[in-house]
Design brief:
The structure holds two protein chains of two kinds.
Chain A: H1 3-7, E1 11-15, H2 22-32, E2 39-43, H3 46-58, E3 66-70, H4 71-81, H5 83-86, H6 98-114, H7 119-125, E4 129-131, H8 139-148, E5 154-158, H9 175-182, E6 185-188, H10 193-197, H11 201-216, E7 220-221, E8 229-233, H12 240-247, E9 258-261, H13 267-276, E10 280-282, H14 289-297, H15 305-316, E11 317-318, H16 322-334, H17 343-353, H18 357-369, E12 374-375, H19 378-390, H20 397-411, E13 418-421, H21 423-426, E14 431-436, H22 444-451, E15 454-462, E16 466-467
Chain B: E1 3-12, E2 15-20, E3 26-30, H1 37-48, E4 70-77, H2 86-89, E5 94-96, E6 103-104, E7 112-121, E8 127-131, H3 134-138, H4 147-153, E9 156-158, H5 173-177, H6 185-206, H7 208-221, H8 235-238, H9 260-273, E10 281-283, H10 292-301, E11 313-316, H11 320-325, E12 331-336, E13 342-346, H12 352-357, E14 366-370, H13 373-388, E15 399-403, H14 409-421, E16 425-429, H15 438-446, E17 450-452, H16 460-467, H17 470-484, H18 486-496, H19 503-510, H20 519-529, H21 539-550, H22 559-573
Parallel strand pairs in B: 3-11, 3-12, 9-10, 10-11, 14-15, 14-16, 16-17
Antiparallel strand pairs in B: 1-2, 1-4, 4-7, 5-6, 5-7, 7-8, 12-13
Helix pairs in contact in B: 9-10, 13-21, 14-15, 16-20, 17-18, 17-21, 18-20
Classes of the chains: A alpha/beta, B alpha/beta.
Chain lengths: ~475, ~575
Amino acid sequence: MDETEILNSDRISITAPAGCGKTHLIAACLRASADKKPSLVLTHTNAGVAALRSRLDAAGVARTRYRITTIDGWALRLVGTFPGRSGQSPSILALKNPGFDYPAIRAGALSIIDGRHVQDVLEATYSRVIVDEYQDCIIQQHGMIMRLSEVLPTCVLGDAMQAIFGWGRNVLVDWTKEVEATYPPFGRLDTPWRWDNSGCSTLGKWLLWARGALQTGAPIDLRNAPEEVTWVQVSGPDDVQALTRAAYTASPVAGGGALIVCDSRLPRRHREIASRVKDAVVVENADLSDFIRFAEQFNFAAPTAADDLIDFAASTLTGVGAAQLKQRLKILLAGRAQKAPNDVEQAAVAFARNPVPNSAVELLVEINRQSGVAPLRPSILRACIQALNGCVSPIEFYEMAVRTREQSRVLGRTIPRRAVGSTLLLKGLEADVSIVLDTESLDARNLYVAMTRGSRRLVICSTSPVITRQI
Amino acid sequence: MAVIRKIEIRNFRSIKSLDWWPTDGVNCLIGAGDSGKSSVLDAIEYCLTTRRSLSISDSDFHNLDVEQDISITLVLGRLDDSLKSYETYGDFLSGLRRDNGAIEEEPGHGLETVLRVNFSVSGDLEPKWRLLSKRAEDKGLERGLNWGDRLALAPTRLGAWTEHNLAWRRGSVLNRLSDEKPDASKALADAARDARKTFGVQAEKQLGDALASVNKAARELGVPIGASAKAMLDTHSASVNGGTIALHDELGIPLRTLGLGSTRLLIAGLQHEVSDRASILLVDEIEHGLEPHRIMRLVSSLGAKTKPAPQQVFATSHSPVVLRELSSDQLIVLRRSGDGSHVPLAIPGEAQGTLRSFPNAFLAPSVLICEGASEIGFIRGFDQFCVQNGHISLQAAGLAMVDCGGGHADHLYQRAKTLANLGYRVGVFRDDDIKPSAALQAEVARLGGITFTWEDGQDIETAIVMNVSEGILLRLIDYAIVLHGFDFVGDHIKSASGGIETLENLRGLLYPQQHTITADQRAIIARAAGGKNAWFKSVGAMESVAREIIAPNFDGVTEDFKAKVNALLVWGQTFYG
């Protein structure tokens, strides 16, 4: 697709199926723009910002060519800079009540842009606006960007078939009725670069075809799929044996990774699968909610503090033997032990006698170091150790936990070799192999997202070889 | 390029306070000496300079009062994209309402987006530059301009020394001509090394004796200097860092050795060349070092004649040539008001004519507005007589005279009002045969304007004829005969008397001591001397009348006339301001 034409258009939308070179196109546009001013690149999440930025770095785009941030982050800053024109109370900027504050911030940003208060400032600052993952915009964000595009040339990229974040009050923009009505469609990226680059062009083409089939409701017969696609017949969601075997599917290349897609409504299932598959770990949500909950409830002074910490460790690692350790600790503390304590037990005693962040870190590290222990939820454990390390006194633990989470949001996620998660968590990640376990629970869009996570192999577990979905 | 929309100066040198909204084009400050004109130029330069260190001393504080901070704020409008950048200056951008000058904290629809740059110095003499913004302050944010923006904004100054601009140096106008950057450091370093070597050989010859003594002493004392000491250029003095590249003429003579005027002219021309991206231009004394015809050239390369104005210029001047070349809206009279603050007074469009014909009037503290050539000549004659007798001249006392060329008396008062409003001390010198409107005269009087005129209904000729001795009268008639011929004067007498009186008869009566003329005859002479073709209706003629005839014979005039003339002279000789 020709970037000069994109640069010459005031308003344009581009449909970008998964793996078809969207980032490459953005990079090309940023490089080709003759304008001295940077482009404003907007996306949805901090992780998305981090991922896109590192890919633009890799593509050799100078950072002076663009400013990248999240849509809400940009709106927040705009309202923070021009509070008087936003018509909103400055108190919303503290984000004490996100459910109320974010809509108010978007409304504030809209009224700043709509009132034409900073039109010249925006024109002076940016050459254009590029919005990535536009299908994930909720109506209010779409409203704001629409007004912004009256000031600056705007190009939006996205794929209606990957719009999976709409639920409850989160009503997503309708691609055909709303997006393409405002931003005339410029075309669809149709070269499956991700698969071409890994030598699996046939798989890439077939996935584009499958996208069409999912869109129109046509049946997909997995038996007619290219050789890179494997159908694993399962009797149902409880067919543990077949599912586990599927989850073990190796990457065709040495050191390659795999993503394992499970039902998004059952987080516990992610951990079960991960604990059953060697080297598999769970992908956490950006809120690290399980960790934050632990940090909120954990009380260093409680008599059960050591037990609680051991239980937490056991929830993030496999093979901890929590029950046994807790039992030994009780005996050791009572002074009734026959056998001398090992390193872990010593650390547990040390923590029980002196429950401070330092000794807690010691205990977690010792547990992790035990033979037979393997990571299950490494991001949670890592975050916890990091937060504890940052604490001077126990009372700071929760505050540090929140800060650690915010840091990890900005840093983005590291992709484990074999990761288990839902489409919501795995979207934006890619690996060599995609293994779709709970196929039955996925609707057309989620299924498309799940199928396109692997660049070399696709494994689909289902009861029937023929899959049909209605949008 | 950005322009200065507003200048606010507090406690800087002679200026206690000044708030000024300059125009986008040429802003030439005029006003009495020491009125703070150059301080305004310095204030702009200090606020936007790229010099990292300024030496500020106690004398830069108004009245040496270091307790009151120096503060200079420039409101910059017509901002470039980089100055308007939301990413860089978002928290500091404000909105200027152009119709009433109000500044709103945040930019807004229908407002011009502006930045407020502040320069301040408190008692510790540490200069501080920052951008003003209430909301940034609330957030605890503080910043100044980016170095790049500072470089772009730094004003070019045509001061007493401007050769700086004829080299490729930081902030020099040559650097704005193009983006090319000379890199001479390597060439210069090599040249310096060569120079050291070459000079070493010559030095041996030139300093042979001294070197021999050094060698001898060193040997005797056992100081290790090798075989023999050498005289070479000090590495320090021969090293060249960065290097300066300057403009030279075809013979290789540096252009900075051009005369002052040529240098300034060339730099103004270069600045004009790049006016689309040129910064603000500051010009001390536009006329400095230039002949009148070159002043005109400089004025036009400042863009004074171009619409819309290509660049913003702040200048000072004391030259009537400059004033004549500029239009009224390009001139600002800087005055200190009663409460000690400075006020910039715009010259109204109706003063354009006065400005063109009598630019001097705007450069003097006092102005006498004269009805016509006769009044001018009359005063000048007396002035010359006084100077001959050792008095100070009116001009030296700061009085300028404006010739209104006759016309209705209201015309004089209109001019008087304009000038009085601009802070000049104004006098009106007129005939009383045509009276001004009472309201206008009263208004000028309220502004401090004083009126000099004759008895009710008299013009200047009547006043003279009715108030001088017969001896003087005869000399006046004889001088008129010299000027115009016997027949001309005779005809005037005949027609003024309805044919019953003759010049010969009147001269016969005036000449010998035993005769006197009647009041009627005096009235006839007055009528004959005045009117449309008045005998002395030119500056030169009336000047001679006053200097040669009336002033030397002042005891031959009435007390009343004497008093009037003296009042006028005393007013004119009193220095004002």
